[in-house]
Amino acid sequence: MSRNAISRLGDNPSDDICPVCKSNRYLNPSLQFLINPECYHKMCSTCVDRIFTSGPASCPVPRCGKTLRKRGFHKAFFADLKIEREVDVRKRVGAVFNRRQDEFETLLDWNNYLEEVEGLVFDIVEGDAKTRAQAEEKLKAYKEANSGEIEMNTRLGLEEGELEKRREKAEREAARQRRLAALKEEEEEKADLLKNRKEVLDRLATEDGDANAIAMQAQKVILKKSSARRNLADTQMETNKSAMDSGLTIRGLKKKEAPVVEKPYDPFGGVDLTPSRYVLQESYDSEWLGNAKRDMRHMAGGYSLQEYYARTMFEAFSGLGVFIEDEVADRGQPAPPAVGTTPAVGAIASGEEPQSKPKPQYKMESDDVF
Amino acid sequence: MKFNIGDLPVLFPYPRIYPEQYAYMCDLKKTLDAGGHCVLEMPSGTGKTVSLLSLIVAYQQYYPEHRKLIYCSRTMSEIEKALAELKALMKYREEQLGYKEDFRGLGLTSRKNLCLHPSVKREKSGAVVDARCRSLTAGFVKEKKARGEDVPVCIYHDNLDLLEPHNLIPNGVWTLDGIMRYGEEHKQCPYFTSRRMMSFCNVIIYSYHYLLDPKIAERVSKELSKDCIVVFDEAHNIDNVCIEALSTDITEDSLRKATRGAQNLERKIAEMKDSDADKLKTEYAKLVEGLRDADEAREEDAFMSNPALPDDLLKEAVPGNIRRAEHFVAFLKRFVEYLKTRMKVRQVISETPPSFLAHLKEYTFIEKKPLRFCAERLTSLVRTLELTNIEDYQPLQEVATFATLVATYEKGFLLILEPYESDTAEVPNPVLHFTCLDAAIAIKPVFDRFSSVIITSGTISPLEMYPKMLGFTTVVQESYSMTLARRSFLPMIVTRGSDQVAISSGFQVRNEPSVVRNYGNLLTEFSKLTPDGMVVFFPSYLYMESIISMWQGMGILDEVWKYKLILVETPDAQETSVALETYRTACCNGRGAILLCVARGKVSEGIDFDHQYGRTVLCIGVPFQYTESRILKARLEFLRETYRIRENDFLSFDAMRHAAQCLGRVLRGKDDYGIMVLADRRFLKKRNQLPKWINQALLDSEVNLSTDMAVGSAKKFLKGMAQPFKPRDQEGISTWSIRDLENFKEKQEEESIRQLREAQTAGAGVVDQHMEGVRNGNEETVTRGDEYGFDDDELEASMMELDGH
C-alpha cells in the first residue's frame, strides 16, 4: 500500500510540492493548490495569500509575468491542467455555439456542425498564437451575428436541464416510497403471522376438537391471506406504474412516440377485395351446376358452391375498369409490352366509365386472389 | 437402442435407458416442436448430456430443416466431455444406420488452448496469446505481406486460405484433441478452422461466453441462423454469467494505463499523418457515411467489438465531434481524466447512469451521444492505425466499453465507487464498479434471436425463478425425480447437536463455542463412520478459517486426524489442485480424507466426487452471499423494484442453489451412493427450495435430527449399501431395456386411448353434467374437510374480520 503511495508521488512530484515556495505536503499536510485561468500555473494557497492579497500582481512563475488577481484563483477540477484549460475553453465556446440537433435538416449537417465546433475548440486549445487569434475572432463574430438564437437556445437548454432534474427527483422519491411500502408490507406480514400463530394457540387451548384440523385451518387462512395480499400488491404495482407513466409524460415533451398499435395482419396489404361492380348472390341458376348442387357426394368432400360463384364472378369482372394508360402515366415510365393492348382496353374502359375516378379501380388490379 | 418418440426415431447409444432420460427427451421434443424456450431440471449423474444430444441429433437428421445445435457449457472439461459423448453417439448411429451421415460437430475454445504456432503457444497467459495471434493473423498483416514487406505471419493461419472456405475440415465429430492433431498434420490453425467452419457444421459446442458476452458474441456467433437450437447446460449460474459479462471494474491503475494508451494513440496518429495521411482520410470519409459501412471490413481479426449496441445506432453516422482521429483521442483523454478526478473522492458513491452522465456533461461537456459511439470508434481507429501490440490498449478499450455501456443503458446498471477496499482500510484503493443489475439484458438478444433456447442443469430449483429473472416465457418447465431401485443416497437435515443446542451459521451465533463444538462433533462422528472420502462445505473462506482455528483450539482436529487426512481448499488455484490431488490419492489407497472447502469456491462447481471420492458431503451452514456488499444490495433492490422478487426470497434461492450444487457433487450416477448432510437449523424451512429429486428422497423423519440421530441413520444406511446389489435388480425400475420402454409406452397409449374413449362416449351434455358433478364433489369434500363447519364464505368473512383488526 505504502509503496503504491510512493510510486504515485514519484509519478507526479508536483502534486505534493508547491512549485513557487517549494513547501511540501509533509511539512504542510493541508497543502492546497489553486490555479488562475489566466495562465493555469499552479501554486499553493499560502502563496496566493502572500502574493495577491495586496492587489493584482504578476504571476511568480518564471517567464510568465501575467497579471493575476486573487479573485480569479480557484481549485482545479482535473489533475491534468491541460484538460482543465480545454474544459474552460469548451465552456466558453459551448455557451456560444449551442445549436441543437433539431435545428438541422439532416444528421449530416448536424455532424458537420459538431465537427466544425470541435475544430474551433482545438484551434484555441492547441493552435499557435495565430490560429488561436483567428479562432477567437470567429467566435466573436458568430456571437455577434447570432445573439438572439444563442439566448433562446441557452434558455431551452436550461429548461431541459431543469426538467431532467425534476424528473430525477421525482423518480428518486418514488423509489423511496416503494422501498418504504415494501418494508411496511413485510412488517405487516410478519405481524399477521405472529397474530395467527397466537390465535391458533388460543384455540387449541380453549376449544376441543381435532388439533390437526385447527392447525390446518390456520395454515389455510395464512396462505389465503398472503395470496390476497400479493394480488393486492400486484394491482397496486400496476396502478403505480400507470401513475408513474403520467408523471413521465413531462419527459415525453422531448421526443417520445406512443408505440403504434399493432393492427391485425392484412394479407393483401390494404387492398380491398369486396366487389364493387356486382353483388354476389346466394345462388345462380345454371343447369350444369344443378347436379353438383343436389349431389351429396360433392358436398361431403367440402366442395362449396359459394366459393365457386365468388371466383367465377371475380374472374368475369376482373379486367374491367383497369386504365393502363393512367397507370403508365402515373408510373412515369413506358411499359412496352402493354402498348399493343392499351388502346383497346382504354377505349372500352373510357366508354363505360368516366375517367375521373381511377382510384377504386386499383382494387381489381390485384391478381387472382384465390 | 432404438425407439420412437412420436414420429421421431431416436437412436440411443446405450442398451439401457433411465426412465427420467426418456421423460426428458419427450419434453425436449415437445419444446422443439412447439418452438419455444424451456427450463429442465434433471438429477446430476443421470446422463443429461447424452439424452440431450441423442434427441437433438435425431431431430436434426430426421426433419428436413436440419436445425443447428449450439451447445453451451461452462468449463473446458465439460466441453470435452460433451464432444466425446457426441463422437460416441455418431459412431453408434453410423453402426446402426449402416451409412455415414453428412454431419459435422465442432468445439470451440480460446486461442490459448488451440494454438499450434511454435512460439505463441508457449505463452502462459490467454491475453498474450490472443494479442500475439492477432498481430500475426490480422488482415493488414496479410496485405503487407502481399506488398512484399517482411512481416512475421502464422503459417498455420495462412494455410487456411489455400483451402476451400466451406470445407476446411472433413465431416465428422472433432474433439479438441482431434482437431489439434488434424491441424498439426495438415499444418492448419485449429482455432480458425473451428471458427470459420461454424456456419457449416451441425453441432457447435462452446462456452457460454461466446453467446452471452456481447463483446465476443457479436464476432463469433453473429452468423448463426434463427432456427438454431440453443442449449445452456449447467445453467444454474447463468444469471451471474450474464451479469459479469456486462460489468466492469475500473481502478486507478487501469486509468493510468488508459492514459498511456491514449498518449500512444496520439503519437501514432501524428506519425501516420506524416507518413500516410491518406489512410486517416479514407477512414474519416467512411465515418461520415456511417458505422456500418466502415465495418464492412470487419472480420474475425477485429480485436474488440462494441458491447451490446442497438442495431439502429450502428446504422447512424458517428457524431461529428469524434469523427477526426485527433478529436477522438482528445475526447478519450478528457473522459479518462474526468474518471481520475472522480476516483479521488473519499466516500462511497453510488449513482445511476443518468446522474453520472449529467455530472459528466456539467464538468467536461461530453454529451451522451458521442460517448455511446466510443467503443466502436476506438475499434475503427485501432484498425486504421494498424496497431499490432494490442494488449497495450486493453485498458483504454475497457474504458471505452464502459463509456458505451453507461451511455446506452439508463436502467439496470449502477455505478458504485468504493474508495477503500474494506471498511477498516486506511490507504485508499478506489475501484469504480460499473455493475449490471439485470441479468436479462445480456441474455435478451439470445432469446430474441433463437426460437428454441433450452436451459438445463442438475440443480435449477425453483424453476420459476429463472424465467422471472431472465425475462422470458417457457413452453415446458419440468423437474424430474430420480428413479432408484434402492435408496442410494441419504439426505438429512441436522438441526441440533447431541446436546440439543440448535446449530446454525447465523451471524449472531456462528462464533459461539457451543455451536462450533457441535459442528466439530458432527465432523468427528461422520469422519468415523464414512468410508473413504468426505467433503465439507463452509459458507465462506472467512468463516472456514475462523472455525478451523477454533477447532484446533478445542482439539477437534486432532480427533479427526486419527481417522482421516485433512485437506483445505484455499483461494489459490494451484494450492487447491495439489490438495485435490492428495485427496484423491488418499481416497484411492483406503486411508480416506476430508476436504474442507467453500460452497462458492472452485471445488463446489465442476469437480466431481464420485464413488470413493465422496461418500459424505457435509454442508455446514447455509451458504448465503455476503450481504453487506454494496453491489449485492443494489441488485437486491433492483430485483425487488423490477421483478418483484423479495430480498429474502432471492438470497435464500441463491443460497439453496449453491447448497444443492454442493450436495450434487457426491452423487454422479445410479450406481453411486452417498450421504448428504445439511447442518443448520435454517435448512428446515428451506427444504422446499431443494431440487425435486433431493427433496423427494428426504424423508419427513430425517429433516429435524440431532447429531446422534443422524449418525444412527447414516450407519444404518451404510450397512444397507454394503449389501450385495446386482445390476439386474435395477432393471425395469431404474433402468429400462427396450422391452421395458415398449411396455411403458404401451401402457401410456392404453391410458390415453381409455381416456379418449371415455370422453367420446360421454356426450357434450353428459360431460357438462359430469363436470358439474366433479365440481359439486369438490365442494362437498371441502365442506367435509372443514370440521368446524366453516363454509368458504365464512372463511372469507373471518379473514375480512382479521384484516379489519
TrEMBL record, chain A:
Coiled coil spans: 125-204
Stretches the record annotates as Disordered: 332-370
Listed name of the protein: RNA polymerase II transcription factor B subunit 3
One of the record's GO cellular component terms: transcription factor TFIIK complex
Domain of life, source organism: Eukaryota
Keyword Nucleotidyltransferase included in the entry's annotation: no
UniProt main location, coarse: nucleus
Domain RING-type: 18-63
GO MF, one annotated term: zinc ion binding
PANTHER family: CDK-ACTIVATING KINASE ASSEMBLY FACTOR MAT1
Keyword Cell inner membrane: no
The entry's keywords: Coiled coil, Metal-binding, Nucleus, Zinc, Zinc-finger
GO BP terms in the entry: nucleotide-excision repair; regulation of transcription by RNA polymerase II
CDD domains cross-referenced by the UniProt entry: RING-HC_TFB3-like
Localization, UniProt: Nucleus
Positions with biased composition (Low complexity): 338-347
TrEMBL record, chain B:
Compartments reported by the entry: Nucleus
Entry superkingdom: Eukaryota
Origin species: Amorphotheca resinae ATCC 22711
Designated name of the protein: DNA 5'-3' helicase
InterPro entries linked to this entry: ATP-dep_Helicase_C (IPR006555), DinG/Rad3-like (IPR045028), HBB (IPR010643), Helic_SF1/SF2_ATP-bd_DinG/Rad3 (IPR014013), Helicase-like_DEXD_c2 (IPR006554), P-loop_NTPase (IPR027417), RAD3-like_helicase_DEAD (IPR010614), Rad3/Chl1-like (IPR013020)
GO cellular component: nucleotide-excision repair factor 3 complex
Residue ranges constituting the Helicase ATP-binding domain according to the UniProt record: 7-295
Reactions performed catalytically: ATP + H2O = ADP + phosphate + H(+)
Keyword terms of this UniProt record: 4Fe-4S, ATP-binding, Coiled coil, DNA damage, DNA repair, DNA-binding, Helicase, Hydrolase, Iron, Iron-sulfur, Isomerase, Metal-binding, Nucleotide-binding, Nucleus, Transcription, Transcription regulation
